[in-house]
Amino acid sequence: MVKIDLITGFLGAGKTTFIQRYLQWLKQKDVKVAIIENEFGKAGIDCAILKGQTDNISELSGGCICCGLKVGFHDLLIKLSESGEYERIIVEPSGIFNLDDFFDVTNSENVKKYAQVGTVATIVDPTSLIDVDQAVTDMLYSQLHSTNLILLSKISTSDNNKIKTLTESIDHIFWANSTKRTNKQKIVAQPWENLNDRFFSEFVAYSGHSLPHKRRLYDHTNTYNSSTLHIKNQFSVPQLKEIINAAFNEQYGKVLRIKGYLTSQDNQTLLINCTKNRLCIEIAKESQQSAINIIGKNINRSGLNTLFSNG
Ligand SMILES: [Zn+2]
Asked: Ligand 1 centre and the CA of 240: distance in Å?
């Protein structure tokens, strides 16, 4: 039986970074792995990031695998599992994702013939629980209640207060849904550079399944939208920070995520990985075509295009 691992988390949580670490470990152990990457935007950014580590990546982009791409996800899972080529399939859904729909797919008779759920991990960025609306809270609850472990991202050993606050915020999401977090949803609060062989040996041993809970149905296609921009300009990092801060300023719709590649003044590829509360701009490991995905609600594409083009 092929094991299907799911690495979920809200927009910008750090899913791809965690998968990079997990892939390194799986490679050491000689495990044959396929990856399914789901991007809500049209440009395959995470796919490009992971391509440096493995070629076995299938991409579903331009929507979420819980809504419009659910059937495509089901069919792709069957295709990869029945091929017999892989021991594990890692699924990275878009940051807009409802975990209940994942279990709908993995419980289908055709998937169960070849595969079963392995580890379900939910990544939570300390800043991602700030200023979230009801729809996002519901989505986060779906990702937290049936997970095997909750991994806090972007923390260090000296972050005790941050970890305490974050744990309380996570528990609050359970209380708001009249439930309580138990040991079944264990929080792992350790810096990722400390995730060792023992951690991953335990990580691969889970068998995820849906725990009983109140289910709320959303069609994310109606709630969120995305724009992919291909910007030819070159940018300095300070200039880009100013533009990106302006983009999050709600004058262009409610922008939640900006991710992709742009070109620096000295012609290097910049990897853009931003949420409103965390701007990350760094030199990309490989040169890439300029393309950025912008995800949010009521996104004003032409306004954003002008903002980036006239910067
Ligand atoms: Zn969806």
From this structure: 30
- pLDDT, tens digit, for every residue of 30-46? 999 999 999 999 888 88
Ligand 1 centroid–CA 136 distance in Å is 12
CA triplet 186, 192, 196: central angle to 5 degrees?
85
Centroid of ligand 1 to alpha carbon of 293 (angstroms): 17
Sequence-ordered strand ranges (E) for the chain: 2-9, 33-39, 57-61, 88-92, 115-124, 149-152, 186-188, 225-229, 234-235, 254-264, 269-274, 281-283, 291-297
In sequence order, the 6+-apart residues with CB closer than 8 A to the CB of 198 are: none
CATH numbers and ranges of domains, the chain: 2-203 (3.40.50.300), 223-310 (3.30.1220.10)
Residue 23 CA, ligand 1 centroid: distance in Å: 26
Tell me the residue length of the chain.
Answer: 311
Across the chain, mean pLDDT equals: 93
CA of 96 to the centre of ligand 1 (A): 6
Q: What is the pLDDT of residue 87?
A: 98
Ligand 1: centre distance to CA 225 (Å): 11
> pLDDT digit string (tens) for 67-78?
999 999 999 999
Confidence at residue 52, expressed as pLDDT on a 0 to 100 scale: 79
Report yes or no: 247 and 203 within 8 Å, Cβ to Cβ: no
Distance from Cα 164 to the centre of ligand 1, integer Å: 30
Three-state DSSP state, 7: strand
SS3 282: strand
Ligand 1 center to 21 CA (angstroms): 26
CA of 171 to the centre of ligand 1 (A): 24
Ligand 1 centroid – CA 98 distance (Å):
6
